[in-house]
Write a structure and sequence with these properties.
Layout (H helix, E strand, L loop, with lengths): L2 H21 L21 H6 L4 E5 L4 H4 E3 L5 E3 L12 E5 L11 E3 L21 E3 L5 E5 L6 E7 L3 H14 L3 E5 L3 E12 L8 E7 L12 H15 L3 E2 L16
Length: 259
């Protein structure tokens, strides 16, 4: 039996199984956000934002009513506790404007469902135990264009030992150290960008990649310098570019995600 025929039979089996599960109420995961073999393995985020305003969606740590502070004049600001600062490095988000909708954010891929997609067929019937549902959290819509692929400064407060380490680094790789700032502060440069990271149960998944002044990717903000950088990203960039509802946008063109 040819591999093409095997794939066809497997697909038919999956469709029949999923239909039965939906009819019996045992399956409610949205097919529309799954990867398809006709999709590109990775979306070029530079190309994506060059085509128009792109919004990404992040689940809040709080209910919607507590996620934003709404002022008397109708303006709003993301609340401090809506995002856990420890999760900012490689923050998990979803691309809006194509097939992912706000209603899909309650579905959370887990275990094998959160494994990287490598381009093959995804049979939902094999992932019945690999997602959870949480519809108690609010939505945060972030203007990705304002945060993607930007270099931004952050200050390191006076700390003699850290300053010695930075001076050693500056001697060899000084391009990301702007200046000494009185009284003893140092201004550093870091970088943030969005990276498409499709997983088995969600093609539209992206992460926020953060690199510190050493150009090291941050998986966690382990020291005071990196924690300061994460605070700057949240307070000066994420908070001011976040919305409680999805603003008007243009749909993403298919050629950006269909191979």
């Amino acid at each position: 039996m040819s591999q093409k025929l095997k794939n066809l039979l497997e697909s038919l089996k999956n469709i029949c199984h999923c239909k039965i599960l939906r009819l019996t109420g045992r399956l409610n995961y949205p097919f529309e956000i799954l990867p398809k073999t006709k999709f590109k393995l990775k979306i070029d985020f530079n190309e994506l934002v060059s085509g128009g305003i792109i919004y990404v969606l992040r689940r809040s740590e709080l209910p919607q009513s507590e996620t934003f502070h709404i002022f008397n004049d109708g303006s709003f600001l993301l609340n401090e506790d809506a995002l856990d600062l420890k999760r900012i490095p490689y923050l998990s988000l979803n691309i809006m404007g194509a097939r992912f909708k706000a209603k899909h954010s309650k579905f959370i891929a887990t275990n094998a469902g959160a494994d990287s997609w490598t381009g093959g067929n995804v049979y939902l019937s094999k992932y019945l135990e690999n997602y959870s549902i949480d519809d108690t959290k609010g939505s945060i819509f972030i203007n990705a264009n304002e945060l993607h692929d930007i270099t931004l400064p952050y200050n390191l407060s006076s700390n003699p030992q850290l300053h010695k380490e930075i001076e050693k680094f500056k001697a060899s790789f000084g391009s990301n150290i702007l200046s000494n700032k009185p009284p003893g502060d140092i201004e550093l440069l870091g970088r943030i960008r969005f990276v498409h990271d499709p997983v088995a149960l969600n093609y539209w998944h992206v992460v926020l990649e953060i690199k510190n002044f050493k150009d090291d990717p941050l998986e966690k903000a382990k020291n005071a310098t990196d924690r300061k950088f994460v605070e700057v990203i949240f307070n000066d960039w994420i908070k001011v570019n976040s919305y409680p509802q999805l603003p008007n946008y243009e749909k993403i063109k298919k050629n950006l995600f269909v191979a």
